[in-house]
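Board notes (copied after class):
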Amino acid sequence: FRLVMNSLDALVYVADMDTYEVLFVNEYGKKMLGADITGKICWQSIQADQSGPCDFCTNKYLFDADGKPGDVYAWEFQNTIYGQWYHIRDRAIKWVDGRIWRLEIATNVTFRKVAESEKEKVLVKLEKALAEFKKVTTQYALSEEANQARNKINDCEERLAEHNLAIGEHYYKTFAFKASTSRLSEILTDYPNYTKMDKVYFL
């Protein structure tokens, strides 16, 4: 276990779900945090300005309806100490002593989040342009300008659908299936003429 966890380029820690005591933190985590936090309280060591267990703690999502350890819970969060973004995968596991512990693997995705933010600005411009082109086709339906606008609409919708597909694929690969389905459903509803619809159906 330790050998595998220490080989990952991600923060990995295991904590008691009742006391929040950290049982294990990998080498990457020690370097990132600047200390070995084993034996310390997770919410005091990994986050900033917490007076108690984090209100965003995912422990409640890690059990099934029968109270048994459930599937992996995937989410993203901006760390309150470093301001870095992480893709996080949490799971309740049975430790060697028989107790149930929380296993968290947090991968730094700050670069991707910054890129997404920049891309989001472009998408906002695309959506505004799409709305304007649709106005032209409505108000001047028989004009040459309307024909040109329809071509622009197809181009905008293709690019917006492409963006949704890329995000849907990312969520699918990280097992965030509900988020993936939501993005793919948007393509089916909003962009029915998308030229790569086969990828949407068979993802």
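Comment from the instructor: The longest strand covers residues 85-94. The helical segments are 2-6, 27-33, 42-45, 110-139, 144-173, 177-190, 197-202.
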